[in-house]
Amino acid sequence: MPSGALLLQSIILGLLLGGLYALLAAGLTLYFGIMRVVMIAHSAFLILAAYLAWWSHSRLGVDPLLSMIVTVPLFFACGVLLQRVLLARLRAVTLTMMSVLLTFAIAVLIEGLLGYVFTGTQRRIQLGYGSASFGIFGARVAVVKLIAFGLAAVALLTLYLLMKKTTFGWALRATIQHRDAARLVGIETERVAGYGFGLGLATAAVGGTALALDTTIYPSLHWHWIGPLMAIIVVGGLGSVPGSAMAAMVLGMLQSLLQIPLGTTWAQTIFYLALFATLAFRPQGFFGGRLAQRF
Amino acid sequence: MPSASEPTTAPATTSPATAPPTGAGTTRRRTADRVVQVVAVVLLAAAVLAFPSLAPNPYILSAGVVVLNYAVLSTSWSFVGGFTGYISLGHGALAGLGGYGTALLVTKAGLPSFVALAVAALLVAALAVPIGFAALRVRGASFVIVSIALVLILLLVFQSWASLTGGSRGLVVPRPFPDLLRPEHHRVFYYLFAGLLALALLAWWMIDRSRFGLGLKAIREDEDKAEALGTPTFAYKLVVFVVSAAFTALGGGLYALWFGDLDPVFQFSILTGSYLVLMALLGGVRNLFGPLVGALVVGIGLEYFKVEFGDTQLHLVATGLLLALVVLFMPDGVLPAIGSLLGRMRPAQNSIREVTAAELRDQRVAAAGAPAAREPVDAVASTAGERAQSTEERA
């Protein structure tokens, strides 16, 4: 039996990790809700944002957090373009399958370009406050992890307020719920869908910056993220933002706790076990709504 | 298509001279098509079989083995991807399982190489049942997610379970023909891969013509309607997934016996899966030889990149770009695109006559001798011919 302090430490780390997962899964859920697209390139953009944060720190000497001033609007624009220029061109009948391939191609392209420009060397941001940490009841929590969690929490809260309180959020949710009906009441669903994609990709920019703070990054890292994220959105029920957030917290916590007896590598398998179990016994997911039934 | 040609031949027997020219032309064109197809298949088979004697050095021959291996895997992929339209990015992992299964059965259980290959394929097929059960109960998106998860989870397991699989140090597979020199070894395996490819193509062709294949294609076109019409969609999808997994495992196992060294990073790589998809899509998934053609193009391209650019990441960039271009502009593949281009060069398929009405009347008068009596029959014959023509255009 591990000591109480170790357990507490794992729970706290699990919570902090779950927050980041929740933010990133929210982006994936948005894409799926809007266009039934499984966006494989989401985590590649995450790593791209992390590289931009590292680059701005090591080459320009600014704090990595400040890189978000550029990356968030940039990624938003990328998301809008991606939806309007590329995904909207695909045939509606085969959209789900072909969009997977298209976003996969983009992910591979980003990985290849990152490897070409920055080489495959592992990179890490050295921050003044990078090694700072504080203790609660014997558990030690790194400040950067807390900052990362704070970023994720603020971004998720902003997303929530945007979706619930603004006219744009209503239009976006209406588009997700029933596209034709949304068009009938006068919502320009094409434009809204594009902005929705932009929002989704903006979460990757925030997540990537948070990731860069305390993780060693390399171009093929995104494959380690896309698997858990996809497991999370299936367990949560495809298309449900609160569902994926719940699943992210639960699975992030489980991963962190299982690391004590199993080690980091085997602990990752919990995501895939949860994925297979969900599909075999409850394909619509555990928090899924109407959408999940058919996919 | 016999139904389209029947009405054109029937009136032709009553008045052979006035038979609508279009009808006879179609039948002739169909025969010509069949001849062209047979000639193309024979030429292709001859080219494949002659390659080892033409290859200038063992490296080119080994590249040929790699390309044939890709062709086998890509054809196996298209059992699922082509017939049902379910795109799997995880077939690389099934091939890897076949490879590791064969290798472990040879090294740990001491089975003869090719018995181990067959047993490994059966084991992978058995494993494909629960995987397919989880992946195929729901529609497309979940299937893709499961297929990617399969690659990632197997990579984790085979890297971490070093006591069984050798982990990242790799696993050496004993060669089945220890006394063969390397070029001879390549040559033998080249023919083995060619045989496996022929087997896979034959299976594909038989499914394509069967009622089972019809059901699978109905799933691809509209799964809801297929289900409403009584197609057992889930059972069909599962069966074809298992068949596809078995062929993929055979391909992977044969690769293991040929190459002799397995590394989890390459065996369970999501890139391998995406190469297979790219090959099949590029060639054309609805076409028997589509994956083979795609494997030739992409396989040769990959070898070229390996030689020219070595270890840089440029092959990723090229793969990504090519995949994106194919998905955006040529989702039906190269073969159908070429087919429609050739279609434009052919005699136009329409009902416009290249003669004036006056000339036509003169021809008929000359041919029939008694114009007044024959006129109605001619009218029926020509309209029937045109109708057959138009059904054909739609088909």
Automatic annotation (TrEMBL), chain A:
<keyword id="KW-0813">Transport</keyword>
<feature type="transmembrane region" description="Helical">
    <location>
        <begin position="6"/>
        <end position="30"/>
    </location>
</feature>
<dbReference type="Pfam" id="PF02653">
    <property type="entry name" value="BPD_transp_2"/>
</dbReference>
<dbReference type="InterPro" id="IPR001851">
    <property type="entry name" value="ABC_transp_permease"/>
</dbReference>
<keyword id="KW-0812">Transmembrane</keyword>
<keyword id="KW-0472">Membrane</keyword>
<dbReference type="InterPro" id="IPR052157">
    <property type="entry name" value="BCAA_transport_permease"/>
</dbReference>
<feature type="transmembrane region" description="Helical">
    <location>
        <begin position="263"/>
        <end position="281"/>
    </location>
</feature>
<feature type="transmembrane region" description="Helical">
    <location>
        <begin position="139"/>
        <end position="163"/>
    </location>
</feature>
<feature type="transmembrane region" description="Helical">
    <location>
        <begin position="225"/>
        <end position="251"/>
    </location>
</feature>
<comment type="similarity">
    <text>Belongs to the binding-protein-dependent transport system permease family. LivHM subfamily.</text>
</comment>
<feature type="transmembrane region" description="Helical">
    <location>
        <begin position="66"/>
        <end position="87"/>
    </location>
</feature>
<keyword id="KW-0029">Amino-acid transport</keyword>
<keyword id="KW-1133">Transmembrane helix</keyword>
<feature type="transmembrane region" description="Helical">
    <location>
        <begin position="192"/>
        <end position="213"/>
    </location>
</feature>
<feature type="transmembrane region" description="Helical">
    <location>
        <begin position="99"/>
        <end position="119"/>
    </location>
</feature>
<feature type="transmembrane region" description="Helical">
    <location>
        <begin position="37"/>
        <end position="54"/>
    </location>
</feature>
<protein>
    <submittedName>
        <fullName>Branched-chain amino acid ABC transporter permease</fullName>
    </submittedName>
</protein>
<keyword id="KW-1003">Cell membrane</keyword>
